[in-house]
Amino acid sequence: MTSTTEQLAGLSATTLLRFATAGSVDDGKSTLVGRLLHDSKSVLTDQLEAVERVSLGRGQEAPDLALLTDGLRAEREQGITIDVAYRYFATARRRFILADTPGHVQYTRNMVTGASTADLAVVLVDARNGVIEQTRRHAAVAALLRVPHVVLAVNKMDLVNYEESVFARIAEEFTAYASDLGVPEITAIPISALAGDNVVEPSANMDWYGGPTVLEHLETVPVSHDLTSCHARLPVQVVIRPQTAEHPDYRGYAGQIAAGTFRVGESVTVLPSGRTSKISGIDLLGQSVDVAWTPQSVTLLLEDDIDVSRGDLIVPSGDAPATSQDIEATVCHVADQSLAVGQRVLLKHTTRTVKAIVKEIPSRLTLDDLSDHPEPGQLVANDIGRVKIRTAEPIALDDYADSRRTGSFLLIDPSDGTTLAAGMAGEAFGGGKPRATQADEAAQASDDEGWDF
Q1: Crossing angle (nearest 10°) for helices 133-144 and 164-181
Q2: Which of 38, 63, 39 shows the shortest CA–CA distance to 51?
Q3: Fewer beta carbons within 10 Å, N or C terminal of the chain?
Q4: Is residue 100 predicted with pLDDT exceeding 70?
């Protein structure tokens, strides 16, 4: 009989890779994705025939593979990517979920969406243009979102005569910049998405390159989902209490495990209240189990009748995050309307939503040289900056560096529900400033009139 530890170890060796593509306008992101789908035999015949018909109608001799991902009418007409396009495909070695993100500066926020759950980001660079501001912007977003693997795809090598020196210069500049941001692993690959060089098959035009193709790297890059060692977290989505003749006293706390594992008999703490109990049972798909792990959706039963509601966080008693009403974080502003000091917002963290006030915007990041523009007063669309927020109720936030799921949050406009910003708690780029102290909390408390906190 297989032990629980062996089952977990088998699951941690996942065959699924989530990755996102990013790059400036016309760098060839959609063409690269189309080439990956086409050359890996992941395109249905009718899809390819439709692309060929549209391409012929435009007077193109070869099918425009970018059309496999640019699905919106405006995207096809303008030849650009506007929205995030998700595609699912598989090879014999791995399954993939890819997000093809836009290249325009005003759509940088879309990259935040596409890369927020990615294990790997492919950043494309036009070999003729080299590293530009948008390249640095995308590297910064990947670093902020703690994407563990970044591939630099130097595209359109056919337009620079496949010169090794061009590739080497771009790879050196990008690697130095991304390393300064704290990106842990960077792999540079010279490609031509249009011609297919080094995308799926090795290029005969670049015999000086001895590394993997893009697909080979995607198939073999290690993806670590260590389910046994990460911080266990269960955001409560709903309290289940049927009160039927069959289950008169049943009270369960249901949700999707955000990280880690939970076991029957384990001591747990409910946050933000701090009340403790032990797990008396775990229900999974109508069956009782002894252990459950992320990303399973389960119902936990506790030994004690304590007050647990939607939005509470159940964690191991020996591994509980600190709770605070004062949060310092890095945010990527995604709305057309600005975010200003003194603005009242809603903060959504996992299943919990609370009122909050933007107390301070200490800095806005300048992507050219990674310097901070101090006290900008507000953030506008696509800005990245540091914010200090005070919430009406305590929030149990992990550092984003420790948990992308429970270290992230959204800021929402309370008047119309618009998402204003995506936040990442803790330090940015491995640096940053410490969170507010208790003395800061006391000093700020008098400024919160009108929101009951």
Answers
A1: 40
A2: 63
A3: N
A4: yes
Q: How far is CA 34 from CA 21, 69, 250, in A?
A: 12, 7, 52
User: Which amino acid, one-letter code, is at 17?
Assistant: L
- For residue 404, what pLDDT is reported? 87
Strands (DSSP E) found in 220-259: 234-235, 238-240, 252-256
Helix%, strand%, coil% for the chain, nearest 5: 25, 35, 45
Length of the chain: 453
At residue 50 the predicted structure's pLDDT band, cuts being 50, 70 and 90, is: low
SS3 396: strand
Reported as a pLDDT band with limits 50, 70 and 90, residue 55 is low
- HEC string of 333-386 equals ECCCCCEECCCEEEEEECCEEEEEEEEEEEEEEECCCCEEEECCCEECCCCEEE
What residues contact 188, with CB distance under 8 A and at least 6 apart?
Answer: 151, 152, 154, 167, 170, 171, 174, 175, 211
> Does residue 75 register a pLDDT over 50?
no
Q: What pLDDT is attached to residue 453?
A: 52
Choose between 383 and 55: higher pLDDT. Answer: 383
List Cβ neighbours of 92 (8 Å cut-off, separation of 6 or more): none
Q: Is 257 within 8 Å of 232 (Cβ atoms)? A: yes
Predicted pLDDT of residue 276: 96
Backbone angles phi, psi at 432, to 5 degrees: 90, 180
* 286 contacts 272 by C-beta, under 8 angstroms: no
Residue bearing tokens 């600190």: 322
Residue 13 has pLDDT above 60, yes or no: no
Return d(Cα 155, Cα 215) in angstroms, integer: 15
Please work out, in degrees rounded to the nearest 5, the angle formed at the alpha carbon of residue 97 by the alpha carbons of 231 and 228: 20
pTM of the full structure: 0.79
Task: For residue 39, give the 3-state DSSP assignment.
Answer: helix
